[in-house]
Each structure stands twice: as C-alpha cells, then as structure tokens.
Amino acid sequence: MVFIALAQLMVVLDATIVNIALPSAQQDLGISDGNRQWVITAYALAFGGLLLFGGRIADLWGRKRAFVVGLVGFAAASALGGAATGEMMLLGSRALQGAFGALLAPAALSLLAVTFTDAKERAKAFGVYGAIAGGGGAVGLILGGVLTEYLDWRWTFYVNIPFAVVAAVGAWLVVREPAGGRNRSPLDVPGVLLSTLGLVALVYGFTRAESHGWTDATTLGMFVASVVLLAAFVTVEARVSSPLLPLRVLTERNRGGVYLSLGLAIIAMFGLFLFLTYYLQIVKGYSPVRTGFAFLPMIAGMITGSTQIGARLMLRVPPRLLMGPGFLVAAAGMLLLTQLEVDSSYAGLILPAQLLLGLGMGTAFMPAMSLSTYGVEARDAGVASAMVNTSQQVGGAIGTALLNTVAASATTSYLAAHAAGATGPEALRLLRLEGMVHGYASAIWWAVGILATSAVVALTLINSGRPGASTASSSGSAAEEEARVPVIAH
Asked: Which domain of life is it from (predicted)?
C-alpha cells in the first residue's frame, strides 16, 4: 500500500507541481508565451490519450511489471526534464512523463483492486488512495512553490526521482500480484489507435478552447474529430473478439455512474485550483510558497473525509449514500466561495470553504475509487482502472477550459459595465481586481451546479449495496454479483 500510494502521489502531484515553476522555466529556457502552454499540454495529451492503452498493457504484462516499468520510465523522463537545456527537450520530457504515467496510474489502481479483496482492508486501502487522488494536486502546488522559491524550477522534476526509485524497489520486493489475473488476448490495434487519437483530440480541443476560444476552427475540428474517432472506437469494440475496452466495463450501471460523477466533480475541482491560485497570488499578493500552504485545509479535509469518514462508513452504508452527500457538502464549500470579494478574509471565508470542499470530496472519492473496480473481472482490472483516470483527465481538461472561459467572459462584461466610473490609476487597478474576482465568482457558480449534478448522478445511477451485502446490482442478480467478486481474489 505504501509503495502504490507513493507512486500515485507522484503522478497526481506532477499534474500541478510544474504550474508554479512554469514562469521560471519559461524565462530560463527562453520559451515564448505562445508555446509555454505546451509544457502542461504535452503531459496532458500523452497521459490522457494513452491511458486505455496503458491499462490494457497492465492487464497483458501483469500489473506489477507495468507498475515498475512505469516508475522507471517516469523517473528517467523527469531526469530529462530537470536537465533540459532548451524548449524541445523540456516538452519532449513532459510528453514522456505523460506516456509512462499512463502506464503507471492504471497499474497502481488495478494492483489495489486485485490485492485488497477483504472488505475492511479494501476500505482502508481505497481510503488512502482516494485521499491522494483528491488532494495530490494541492500537494503539488505546495511542493512546487517551495522547490521553486528555495531551490530551482528544475527540482520540480528531480523530486520525482527519489519517489520513483523508492516505489519501484519496494514494489519489486514486496508487491505480490495474484496469479491468473492476466488478459493474454491479442492486442486490439485498431482500438488502441482510435481511442488514443480520439482522446488526444478531445483533450487538445478543450485545451485549445481555453486559449483560442470555442469558435476557433481548429478547436471545433478537434471536437468533431474526437466524436468521430470515439464513435468508431465504440463500434470496433462491440465487434472485435478481444476489445481494448470491453463494453461490459462501461455498461455496468454502477461503474458507469462512478466514471460520470467523478468526471463532473473533477471539472469543478480543477477550476477551483486555477481560480484560487490566481486569487491568492494576484489579488491577495501571496508568494508561491504561501499560496501552496493556503491549500492545506483542503488537503486536511480530503484526508479526513477519505480515511476517517468514507473508509469507516463504506462497510455500513451503500456507496451512493457517501458519494451523493459528499458531493453536496463539496458544493456547499463552493457556494461559500461565490461570495469572494477583493478584501475577503482567508480565515473567515476561504478556510471554511476549503474544509467543506475537502471533507466532501474525500468522502465521495473513497467509495468511488473502490466501486470503479469492484466486481470487475481480474482480466479487465487494468482497463477499468484506466477509465477512472481517463474520466479524471478529461474532466480536468474540460474544467480548466470551460470555467476559465466563463470567468474571462464575466470579467470582460464587468469591466465594460463599470469602466466609466473609474478615474485615476488606483481606481483602475481596483476595478481590474474587482473584475477578476467577479469572473472567478461567476465561474464558481457553475462549479456549484456541476457538483450538484455529480451528486444527482451518483444518487440515481449507482445502486450497489454496501460491500459484502447481497444487494443485487442492476447488471444481474445477487448470485451473479457474488460470482463476479471472487474472480479478483483468485
């Protein structure tokens, strides 16, 4: 559990740790303003596009082998990024990080699924995993700020190496994958190509929409291409004998509900990270380190919600009664943040909002992560795990683009409506800050609605009973459900 958790933390925090270091890296390597987004986008495209392929490789090779190879490759790519002497070297290293992360992330989650089969142990294991999945991004903001301010931006890459080495050595020595769980069917090459290209087009479309607008010809072209490619992928998967993503993984009601509700929740979360970071640094004047530490209440809330609430109640109540209320508590935290103003108090508004958000997300994430692989056949554990990461990755891309667009539009409208009353440099500066905060608050209202929708999805689609209960799922009888679960414990 320690080594799997360490690897997952490394992958999750890498999605945000580079954000704070990006201005320093851009200046040091001479990266243009137009190309700086590719430091983030190169990782997102490789990671999001190759996740299903990585999950299938984990099923084919064995999760332990895929886990170790992913760690070694991620460490090597991080070393390359830290030693980068130019723009292309840095971008190439980020793409490599994303590719090996796409192998590592589903291998880690599927190892949990096939290793922890006792209900109590599974609850504890997924409690830890859920806390990391939800709070790792905020940890990345803290670590990125500390490393950039006190050492150098290159250490945001080098820091991955000790994580990866410890996790790889530990996994090689102590992780024991249950025998007989591999899927040795031939690789579905058309499925790999269609899913990879479709997901890359989808993620890039949302990423480009943030900087070029939703009506940009290339943005629209990416969305159209994504729909065509993913529709072709589903058609192929329904017909081939050994599909990359067996449709039984998606069509099972509870797993489908988890993927959809998690993806929606991540849309709201990623938007919040973006807006709070800008608010604290630009409006409140916080340093990178202080900004990172300002996210600690959210991390504490997530750890508490996941390990103390979700893990303890998971064996007593159905998952939907943890996920639905959890997302609603998180929505209440978001609702507080809609009251943001230029002079809002951190202790009076932002801190309690973060605590509610963390508690709610942690409570919801824990059963969601467990249910996403619960009852799945061992041969499908890798791709089922990859679907969890895919929903998070796509949700993150949508959240950043959609909510940033909403905020920018609201800010523009506010400035246009109030510009006439601002005279003098100080009044103009205050108006600019007020416009930014108005934009953030408007986008956060959308996040509240998205989280409420996520709660509705969880409460209506997910009908699984508590682990170990005999409640039938929508995909079959209680006897069929019991017959599936032991496959993981083979």
From this structure: Bacteria
The phi-psi region of residue 297 (left if phi > 0; otherwise alpha if psi is between -120 and 50; otherwise beta) is alpha
Nearest to 268 by CA among 203, 321, 333: 333
Q: For residue 475, is it within any domain?
A: no
User: Would you call 8 exposed, middle or buried from its count of C-beta atoms within 10 A (0-12, 13-18, 19+)?
Assistant: buried
User: Maximum CA pair distance of the chain?
Assistant: 75
CA distance 101 to 113: 18
Q: Are residues 263 and 380 in the same domain?
A: yes
Instruction: Give the CA dihedral 246, 248, 249, 254, nearest 10 degrees.
Output: 170
- The count of structural domains within the chain is 3
Q: In 3D, which of 277, 279, 258, 254 has the Cα closest to residue 390? A: 258
Which residue in the block uniquely carries the two structure tokens 């990359």? Answer: 244
Please say whether the dihedral angle defined by the alpha carbons of residues 67, 156, 16 and 126, taken in this order, is positive or negative: positive
Can you tell me the distance from the alpha carbon of 385 to that of 133, in angstroms, rounded to the nearest whole number? Answer: 13
- Phi and psi angles of residue 397, each rounded to the nearest 5 degrees, phi first: -65, -45
Q: Is-contact 349 365, C-beta < 8 A?
A: no
Distance, in Å, from the CA atom of 250 to the CA atom of 473, rounded to the nearest integer, reads 14
Q: In this structure, are 383 and 440 located in the same domain? A: yes
Residues 214 and 292 in one domain: no
Look at residue 257 and tell me whether its pLDDT is greater than 50: yes
Domain containing 194 equals: 188-243
What's the CA gap between 81 and 83, in Å, rounded? 5
Residue environment code for 446-461, b if the CB has 16+ CB neighbours within 10 A, otherwise e: bbbebbbbbbebbbeb
Instruction: Indicate the residue type of 416.
Output: A
Residues 154, 143, single domain; the answer is: yes
Separation between Cα atoms, residue 169 and residue 24, nearest integer Å:
33
Global pTM? 0.76
Give me the half-sphere count of Cα atoms (radius 13 Å) on the Cβ side of residue 370. 37
DSSP-assigned letter for residue 419: G
Q: Mutual orientation of helices 119-150 and 253-278 as an angle, nearest 10°? A: 20
- Structural domain includes residue 477: no
Percent of the chain whose pLDDT exceeds 90: 16
Chain segment 271-289, per-residue pLDDT in tens: 777 788 778 878 888 877 7
